[in-house]
Amino acid sequence: MANNEESRGLKSLLDWFANRRKSGTTSLERQEREIADGLWHKCAKCGVLTYTKDLKANQMVCVECGHHNRVDSDERIRQLIDQNTWKPMDEHLRPTDPLQFRDRKPYSDRLREMQDKIGLIDAVKTGLGQINGLPVALGVMDFRFMGGSMGSVVGEKLTRMIEQATQRRYPVIIVCTSGGARMQEGMLSLMQMAKISAALQRHRDAKLLYIPILTHPTTGGVTASFAMLGDIILAEPKATIGFAGRRVIEQTIREKLPEDFQSAEDLLKHGFVDDIVPRTQLKNTLTQLIALHQPIPTAPHMVLWESMSLSSSAAE
Ligand SMILES: [Zn+2]
Known about the structure:
Layout (H helix, E strand, L loop, with lengths): L1 H21 L3 H11 L3 E3 L6 E3 H6 L15 H8 L6 E2 L18 H12 L5 E8 L2 E8 L10 H17 L3 E7 L7 H20 L4 E9 L1 H4 L10 E2 L10 H8 L10 H6 L5 E2 L2 H14 L7 H16 L1
Parallel strand pairs: 5-6, 6-7, 7-8, 8-9
Antiparallel strand pairs: 1-2, 3-4, 4-5
Bound molecules: zinc ion.
C-alpha cells in the first residue's frame, strides 16, 4: 500500500517534470511572468536578469553593469540609517492648494491620487538618525511623488530639519532627486529655494557640515538651490544633474550638446561635484566624511601641554 502511494507520488513528480519540459510555453513566457511577479528584475541598461532579492541585497545596483536603479525614500533610509535609530519629523505636514490650480485636472485631486497610490503625503521624508553611530539629520526626496517636485511641504520640512540640525549641532545630509519646483504652487514653490538656502546658511555659520547627494535626476529649482550648496557635494554614478532640460538648452543655443552633458561624470570634470560615489559605498563614505568633521574634543594631553608651556613662560 505504502509502496503504491510512493510510486504514485514518484509518477506525479515525473509527470510534473515532463509537463514542464513539454509545455513549450517555456522559458520565455515563464520568464516574463516571473518578471511581472517581481521575482526577477530585467536591467534597463544591460538587459541581464537578476533575482530581485539579490538586486535588493546589492542596494538596487545591477550586479552586472553597475546601473543604479531608482530607490524610494523608505529604501534609501534603510540603506543609510542604522537600524532602530530613525526618528521621522513633521510627518503631519500636508500640502494645500492655495492657488486652486488646475491643469488637466485640479491640483487637489492630483495630490489625493498620489497620496493614495504611493502612500506618501508629499515628496520628502525628513528625520534624525545615526549613520554607523554618528548622529545626522537626513532628508530624502522621493521621485515617485509628482517627480520629487518641490512645493511648500518639501521646503518647510527640509527647513525645519536643517534648523533642528543647527540647534543640535548635527550634520545635514539631503538625498536629492527632483524635477524642480512644483508649478502647481507657483511662487510659493519658488520661495522654498530661498527659505531652505537661508536655513543652510545659518547651519553653515554655526560651522556645521552639509552634504547633498545628487541622484538621478536632480534638476530645476532643487539644483538651483540646496543641491549645489553643500560643503561636499556627492553624486551617484551616471545621475542626470542640471537646471534646464537638455532639449530646451539645445533649442535655445541651437547647438548639439555632448553625449555626457549634465551627467554626474561631466559635472565632476567641471568641478560642480566633489565626488561620485557608488551607492554600495555611500554609507561608508558618509561615515568617513562625518567622522572627519566631528568637532575635536579638548584632549587631556593638549590641556597638559598648554599648562606646561604657560608655566615655562612664567619661569622665564
Ligand atoms: Zn545591468
